[in-house]
Amino acid sequence: MTPVAGVYPIVNTTFNEDGTLDLVSQRRLVRFLIDAGVHGLGLFGNASEGYALAEAERRHLTKVILEEAAGAVPVVVSSGYTGTDVAVALSVEAQEAGADALMILPPYYLKPDAEGVYHYFASISRAVRIPIMVQDAPLMTQVPMGAELLARMARELDNVRMVKVEAPPTPPKISRLKQLAGDQLTLFGGLNGHFLLEELARGAVGTMPGSDMPDVFVRIWEAARRGDHAFARAEFGRALPLIRYELQPGMGVAVMKQNLCDAGIIASARTRHPTRTLEAADLAEIRSLRADVDLLAFRWAAARA
Fold it and tell me: 113, 124 in Cβ contact below 8 A?
């Protein structure tokens, strides 16, 4: 696998109005993301509504998305579970399906201590041959993973090679991980790119936002990498009101889907409960916020209409 860096959006899962999988829209979304210049794709994170998918649906979506991506970019598949043995099995299954890397949450039902977390990731690392990205998201899991533990796993576990840092404040944690692990860990940000500029300045190499404004994040990432910080700040500032709005727990995914649906990329903005359904006031706010952001989604879909 080539070194991981850049913008790896979490691919939204597309549904028909009756809640079944919409595979036509799913393929179209993957094509849009690749055309937008993303560097990779993430499957079954929070923005994918992975928490609302059956295992059979995840398997089918993995097959469809890998087939549509056709090797154009690396694909990172989320394969964590609340039990270690099942997490191992799901990780091996994702590897065999063609995943380039795995993104794994710690167990979050019976919350283990540091040694329990280590055992969980060690078990998965021994079972697979592809890189593991540890998803450090304590706001969601209530399982804290200190920088010392993450650095230890990078030193001692062959396949733990990346961390998605979503434990705010994220910039100081990235600095601490760089200090402890150096180049042994590749660091990404999450939280819909909320602290992207600070994370890149501290040593992160990428971010994993949602799917509705990949071009915006690619422009910011490219500008920061070439040292054009004024342009990166200006682009980020224009998009920040929408980024912030999408970070609201329980409704951010619905906002992303609404943007994609309004653009014509996907056929329906349908989400699955417990993700919120948007109200009229929400829709008005979203459309007002995105008026100041030049979103490729609208031009891309119009060109193919």
Answer: no
Q: Residue 177 belongs to a domain with what CATH number?
A: 3.20.20.70
> Which sequence positions are flagged as catalytic?
164
**Separation of alpha carbons 146 and 295, rounded Å:** 37
Structural domain contains residue 67: yes
**Is residue 263 a contact partner of residue 298, using CB atoms and an 8 Å limit?**
yes
Tens of pLDDT along 190-221?
Answer: 999 999 999 999 999 999 999 999 999 999 99
How many structural domains compose the chain?
Answer: 1
pTM: 0.95
Give long-range contacts, CB 8 A cutoff, 24+ apart: 183-186.
184/151, 184/154, 184/155, 185/150, 185/151, 185/154, 185/161, 186/3, 186/4, 186/5, 186/161, 186/162
Element (H, E) at 270: none
Write the CB contacts of 285 (distance below 8 Å, at least 6 apart in sequence). Answer: 245
Q: Percent helix, strand and coil across the chain, each rounded to 5?
A: 55, 10, 35
Residue with tokens 């040694």: 115
Closest among 242, 244, 125 to 194, alpha carbons compared: 244
